[in-house]
What does this fold into?
Amino acid sequence: MDDPAFALRDATIAIVGIGLMGGSLALALRAQNACRAILGITRSPATRDQALARGAVDEASGHLSLAASADVIVLATPVRTIMRQMAEIGAVARAGAVIMDLGSTKQAIVRAMEQLPARLEPIGAHPMCGKETFGFHAADAALFQNAPFVLTPLARTSPATLALAQTLALTVGARPIVLDPARHDRIVGAISHLPFALAATLMATAADLAQNDDLLFTLAAGGFRDTSRLAASDTTMMLDILLTNSNHVANLMRTYAARLNQFADSIEGKDESALRTMLEHAARSRRELYV
Amino acid sequence: MDDPAFALRDATIAIVGIGLMGGSLALALRAQNACRAILGITRSPATRDQALARGAVDEASGHLSLAASADVIVLATPVRTIMRQMAEIGAVARAGAVIMDLGSTKQAIVRAMEQLPARLEPIGAHPMCGKETFGFHAADAALFQNAPFVLTPLARTSPATLALAQTLALTVGARPIVLDPARHDRIVGAISHLPFALAATLMATAADLAQNDDLLFTLAAGGFRDTSRLAASDTTMMLDILLTNSNHVANLMRTYAARLNQFADSIEGKDESALRTMLEHAARSRRELYV
It folds into this structure.
């Protein structure tokens, strides 16, 4: 690793958006006493009060201008809000400041980062530790423990900035992984955005059926609870994710739907050997993955 | 409730199949000291030894003939095994014996029960507390706590037998619910069999994609883990369920696939208002269901 232009422990970090991710980052940095100061920026006065009361931030504001003095600015709002905030951040940030985000899609954000003034040091990031809960009250200093923390440097990102980002990820207990934005979006489409789409569609399907049978949810057990869990995710956050990874996600959903129809064919056709092969393959893969 | 012909506490109960469900039933009855004796029947000598060692059963055998002296015979094998065992149980069981099963589909089993000799007292049952784990080593006396315990009496089932089955369900901590077999199969198709089919298809889809990207599973977080959990279920058990509830399940899968394709259309068409309406509806339904 190259030496960063400044050390994390000497840095003032501004976090924009103090929900589950931003709030957890503040708490995790605080728990490690990892930097000089933490500034929190959010429109919600109640969240500002809570973040100050829990000691997550040293100072809080509803205005991006608070980030002017920061060495590192972390954008932790929904993806399309991050993209909208990029120009204002570019105008506000001091020369040499590292601009990082925590958004769940990376191609669209990195494209927006490419427009930042040359004096700034952008790098994309995505810690893989979402929950279906959200908001600062759900924030947790331990959220990043052992989580993969994807970093997507731009062509212009300096080795020093990449090193700082890696240090930050390691400091909060995560495992930094450097990745190309396109590959990131393709992978999370399959292992994060598709599962969300499936859970939301399951919940919508079951809610419709429940209108004709009031016992339906009474009988729902652990299997339904787990498979539908992601449907409770924050709508604005997920909408932004789906719309900024639309090609990958829509293609995956169509491939999945075709496979599900084939599976239904095998059930209707009582094709026991095809079914057994498919189910055993899926069961073996799942058991190997989570031993 | 009518008085049963015999009290549960005086009964000898034979359990055929001592896996997760049968083993848990034995342990739960034992923990409550609920009956006179528990007999375990399984082909596996290792499971017989374990069940005897844990005190789950008083006596164990590999042969259905052990059930000849039982007042209650509980079939806890996979659905199609239950159907195959029904004739032999009919030949072996003593007059007045209650024949109950714990299978996850009820129409096919109840039809098989209708063929039992008139001297026997059949009733279908399905405790809604499956896990993706299986086998006697996963058995747990607390498995049925607060779980809905569906009972599907036949036209010929006596009030006394229904009362005994309700007592048994209450004794192991479950909530008995009397239901028509067709309605049961329609409901569990939606809240149990469809979620399994979705999880298996997700796991198969992701495993295929992982062959071209070795980082795919490295980045999988809690969302993927929960949504794919049911894919690890026992293949023989699930195959029997799908094939004995094939019409309901296949129809639900096709409806679901059509809905998923519509969802993909909305994403590709950037139809933000349709997406927001659908996602908010799903999120609200999920949050109301599990508060």
About this structure: Chain B touches chain A through 92 residues (CB under 8 Å). The two ends of chain B are 34 Å apart (CA to CA). Chain B has two domains: 4-179, 184-289. Chain B has a mean pLDDT of 95.
